[in-house]
Amino acid sequence: MNGDEFDEIDEPIIDVEDSEESAAPMIYDISSYGADLDVEGLVKRLKRGDIFIPPFQRDYVWNQAEASRLVESLLLGLPVPGVFLAKEGESNKMSVIDGQQRLKSLRFFYDGFFNPKEEDIRKKVFKLKNVQPQFEDKTYESLEEEDRIKLDNSIIHATIIKQESPNDNNTSIYHVFERLNTGGRKLTPQEIRSAIYIGKLNEMISELNEHPSWRELFGKKNNRLKDQEMILRFLRCIPY
Question: How far from chain centre, in Å, is Cα 200?
């Protein structure tokens, strides 16, 4: 079996919606507000860790052309979709609920390298591709100064939420994540499961997925978590 054959795995093992309905729904008290954040400031916050990508988020799946189109939209003054951030308690840190692909794309462009797999020591210079001629093959540093300032000052709207209660968990962000991702690029069953059910089983599946023997057998990691889906299938076959 190779990585491409994971694409055939599409039926769910666990019906997430049925699992949620079997228990009494939790009622949340959530506060929210909007903020217009400039691109340069967003990238700086990402680099400092003030805004961070939580573990339940799926991998980065955009290609360089998709990331380039985002940058081009901002350079042309076109609006782009906003992001959803969750405030972490009383700290100033915020986790990304929706918008990881856009935020990481911007960071890659500012860093100068398109490096979706951070463990890959080979770094590919991030030059804009399949965009308007005046921007084609431009890096952040090689942009005209006027264009660079325009990009820095471009605004992305952020919806920032904070769970006020219950105060002994922060599970609302997983449900918000799921509901925001029911449209567009549909999540696989394992992506939804990883987002909602945070616990030792998911941690074990993630650790097994990193094991060299497993990677040697099944090849490169699947960015839609279908390799983790296969591990879960194997675990279900083990008698207890």
Answer: 21
